[in-house]
Structure prediction request, 195 residues.
Amino acid sequence: MDVDAILTLLRRADLLEALPRTGYLYSRVPQPESVAAHSYGVCLVALLLTDTILKRPDPPEVDRAMVLEMAILHDLAEAMTTDIPSPIKRFMGREHVKEGERRALEVMVKDVEPRYASVWDRYEAGDCLESRIVHVADSIQMMLKVLQYEVAGLGDLRRFWKYAGNFDDQGIPEAKALLERIREHHEAGDWPSGL
Prediction:
């Protein structure tokens, strides 16, 4: 075990706590959630979604550990690249951003667990159920947060509702139901208190 490498990775990852989700900054949301808070939310949504899928009468095989690894790692590289919002990615080219994120992730994990880079690659490829769960969990968490900000009267978040990609259910019926209910709350202009 390389103690210093682990501590270096943890120190870098800790930067995610101070890094705001810049898409919300562009939408003029004061003090938006951090990338770390978003990542935690994605992990929770992915876990709940996985367990819901596994309750089907004839459930597909789902590797819960892989889902959680992908969810934890999906934005880790942003500790080095920052959270680049979608409008900027369009100008830079999404493939260039992903290449940069892949290189950053590789630097972060190479002395701790190089396998994490291949987990991230599988997530990015989006060609397995585990990856699709995490991709849609990312959207569900984001749209829940957008709804929360909107109901609180924070920022101009209309662009999030207009982009169809934010509602891509990845062919998962349980995710479709969640996204539809989020849209219903948006249309009603309400969001129940969590207390």
Remarks:
- The longest helix spans residues 129-151.
- The two ends are 43 Å apart (CA to CA).
